[in-house]
Amino acid sequence: MTNKDARTPASVQSETSQEAGKSIGWHKAYVEGSRSDLRVPVRQVHLTNGQSVTLYDTSGPYTDPLVDTDVRRGLPPLRENWIIARGDTEEYAGRPVRPEDDGIKHTSPRGGLRNLDAVFPGRPRQPRRGRDGQAVTQLAYARRGEITPEMEYVAIRENVSPEVVREEIAAGRAVLPANVNHPEIEPMIIGKRFLVKVNANIGNSAVTSSIEEEVEKMTWATRWGADTVMDLSTGRNIHTTREWVLRNSPVPIGTVPLYQALEKVDGKAEELTWEIYKDTVIEQAEQGVDYMTVHAGVRLAYVPLTANRKTGIVSRGGSIMAAWCLAHHKESFLYENFEELCEILAAYDVTYSLGDGLRPGSIADANDEAQFAELRTLGELNRIAKRFNVQTMIEGPGHVPMHKIKENIDLQQEICDEAPFYTLGPLTTDVAPAYDHITSGIGAAMIAWWGTAMLCYVTPKEHLGLPNRDDVKTGVITYKIAAHAADLAKGHPGAQEWDDALSDARFEFRWEDQFNLALDPDTAREFHDETLPAEPAKTAHFCSMCGPKFCSMKISQDIRREHGGSRTEIEEGMAQKSKEFAEAGNRVYLPIAD
Amino acid sequence: MTNKDARTPASVQSETSQEAGKSIGWHKAYVEGSRSDLRVPVRQVHLTNGQSVTLYDTSGPYTDPLVDTDVRRGLPPLRENWIIARGDTEEYAGRPVRPEDDGIKHTSPRGGLRNLDAVFPGRPRQPRRGRDGQAVTQLAYARRGEITPEMEYVAIRENVSPEVVREEIAAGRAVLPANVNHPEIEPMIIGKRFLVKVNANIGNSAVTSSIEEEVEKMTWATRWGADTVMDLSTGRNIHTTREWVLRNSPVPIGTVPLYQALEKVDGKAEELTWEIYKDTVIEQAEQGVDYMTVHAGVRLAYVPLTANRKTGIVSRGGSIMAAWCLAHHKESFLYENFEELCEILAAYDVTYSLGDGLRPGSIADANDEAQFAELRTLGELNRIAKRFNVQTMIEGPGHVPMHKIKENIDLQQEICDEAPFYTLGPLTTDVAPAYDHITSGIGAAMIAWWGTAMLCYVTPKEHLGLPNRDDVKTGVITYKIAAHAADLAKGHPGAQEWDDALSDARFEFRWEDQFNLALDPDTAREFHDETLPAEPAKTAHFCSMCGPKFCSMKISQDIRREHGGSRTEIEEGMAQKSKEFAEAGNRVYLPIAD
């Protein structure tokens, strides 16, 4: 996660993570690549001992005081020149936006007047798509041996060579979601050879929340480390909300087009058609959605497999498709039209996230026939997508007890040719509503260790309500913990440097450094100050847990200090003793009769 | 965890978990054993569908409205008659309580006047110990083939036969911590064949908190499911605080006698002596401490092994002993006098918790030579303890990345003859101060799955400050999740019934049942009501996450309903289809060219 010894940041802008007046903090910095418009943002933490630690940064231009951001204008189109320079895409008039895109079909009071203020006021833009016969996906470029600026960008972020990035994408083991209509993103990569990523879901519902809230949730989630954001809106103004989110998002945005399609038929699943769905996909692709969850694996024949389940079908997309299949007694229109869908996604470089519509919704239903039947179909669909040069990842469960987790990732990797796995949790028990960020954080850490590339967060509100700002933060932080724990367990190069820097700070009682290096500096500082608010406590060689006399680390330091001069000297002295001890055959145990 | 089909509770007292006026809730009930004074408390959750679920209960008489509790009087001495009836213990005058037991050595302003109000006002009691030559530990009884009332009690709690309990204790694979001077406890067992247990730490520090707060934290922790509580007080009034806690605790109480001993020598580690330590152990054993952490594995020769560590020695007990060893250049007095210590603990049936004084305090230090050298010594000490019939468990780390966790439990089980492992976390990363309940909950769930018998909780304040009431609750709930996830993964008989009951309630939109079955009903209800506060929402067939049109479980139910009559009929119909499908060879995939 750190790349202390890597490139020197090209420029370091000064910014404090706290309110003005705090002298120590972190700075937004950039690592420049092979061209001046390729500047990779990092979070540079300056320590009180003069060192600094560089951390991966997902927060976008919002944390750069030199960039004047305005959500009404949107973010600068970072990738625009790269996309244009490739010369394989063209602008076109695009599909006209219709009132029903925002769920305004009727003039009933509920339908109401369109809130004109809500329309995104930013620069006018025309959608872009691949020219006829042109393969414009990162997968196509990688297969051709081309290293795109996007690939170089993520190579710098991940501290690997661009060739590794290209290889992993070409092999289908990684995806770089980057719709040609979403030039605002800072490219990132999802694959098991890279840092484990975290997705945060946002989105309004029929019951509550506004456009402003969703944009705010997106910037808030990325502020805490979300690598991608899914807009799962199901309420009003779906199109317009998404426009605001896309134009302001520094991370790839995912959606489930089926949700909006269902809104267009007033929530009646049986009235869905391929045409309505396709139109919705084009609508969203033109806006710039980077990856789409497609539940094409929910086939007619699998629905009966869920009959004896404890919790039936718990995926919204899965249940909608199951309802459609049964209503018409026909095969899924997503499955039947999958090749045409591939052509559409390929034209915009939209990445597939093949949805697990039959994922288990309870411990009892984990790893059952329905789930694995669908997974085998996703394996087939993955191969089709690859024929069309569409980048593809595979979604995974759900609710799975710990002893059944490994089977999920192992089977997925086998069946889906190592395509990136993207799992929701899994939740390792059903008994803790209000704490499902934790029940699932446990499963997430484990499945990521074993090879899952991206984790979809779960917030404390899961199963109970719509997450608010605090829930989003708690969900993201919990999943960043799971992801980083997995990076450590996988031995990801450089991952442990972050832990080491924080542990050094802890041992040396550099409290400010501990706070600034923490995943959540604000809460760490707040918790410390709750018991010891006075400023001198920030340099005290103890904390309120044990008090001054009982601090083990202080005693540990005293031992080193008292039995020699400097810490280095005593360490050398103790190391020498340790060596002698080893040379004596480690015979330290008293002979004790059993 | 549930024993739905087990014994009928002897009596069910009515009590609501919420304020008066809520009609549905849970009740404290008792399962009677072979004698009328052997009544095992359970939490009986009454569901709106007429069924009920019985859950393990640690909350003590406080949640029984028929028991008139008063912290100034203490809990009724449940086990007193059992202990007396065995006829192998005797009351004696006991060690006089001295001012310095409470840290009042001087008459300085800081030493101050003793707060007489703080003296525990309950019934006068004399300490009790084993008569000369009598082995009065549960281990001794088990080895002799005796099934004590305590063993029968835990057998009912665990839904196993008393003989299994006796066997596991006799083999040293489980401990039943129950000091003869702590008759108030409701017996419980710690061992890998039983439900995974959770310990909560309380205790004041030199910096903050009062006796009342500590008693309140203890009852609060057990209210949320703590199976044992350690009083780690290091501030003033250590003796008196412990007396209050013991007399009011329904769960076994553990301590680290070294902390109090150090207070008696004004915090100067080098002034500690075996006599002061021994006197402290007797003082605490007479009060009724059920298990004691003893850092006898920190030997002189191991201290240099910590020299090159990133975070040195982070166990308070470990660092105190290391400081003593180095100051005197002598072997640890705990190690040297271990046999005499065994004799003392045996006389009261105090259980050893052999401390891991050299546990790693950072990811960098995990599984190092210092840690495993100490573990090997703990293996030797375990065998000595068993010779003296002292029940023994072994403490474990600490900070350990996921890929190094399994080695810890495997080595411990091998070296320590399968003695119960009792671990602190482990924390799977160092980078998230303020969220270490989560970094460690991940490791705790994993290590418990692999055989750890008890988990010491970590609160959000770990590394930062002293936990308050909310932190204690969060820590306990997080660790109950880890423990239950492990019970599920181990396939503990009955564990999944709890998850199944909650998932059934979820699928059938029985919101009140979901809340009442939740580990934390209050927060689950509060989160739900935050978005949908109206009473009808409690019976609504959707929640605020998706709203009515998008609820997958509603659609799932509708599918079942629309394609047949009753849910049973449609399930049968779908199952039949599923059977036909299987008989047709599961050939559901379209032939697709790769």
UniProtKB/TrEMBL annotation, chains A, B:
Matching Gene3D superfamilies: 6.10.250.620, Radical SAM ThiC family, central domain (3.20.20.540)
UniProt keyword Zinc present: yes
Binding site for Zn(2+): 399, 463
InterPro entries for the chain: ThiC, ThiC-associated_dom, ThiC/Bza_core_dom, ThiC/BzaA/B
Domain of life of the source: Bacteria
Annotated Basic and acidic residues bias: 93-105
Region (Disordered): 1-23, 93-135
Binding site for substrate: 201, 230, 259, 295, 315-317, 356-359, 395, 422
Domain spans labelled ThiC-associated: 27-90
Protein known as: Phosphomethylpyrimidine synthase
Organism: Streptomyces cyanogenus
Gene it is expressed from: thiC
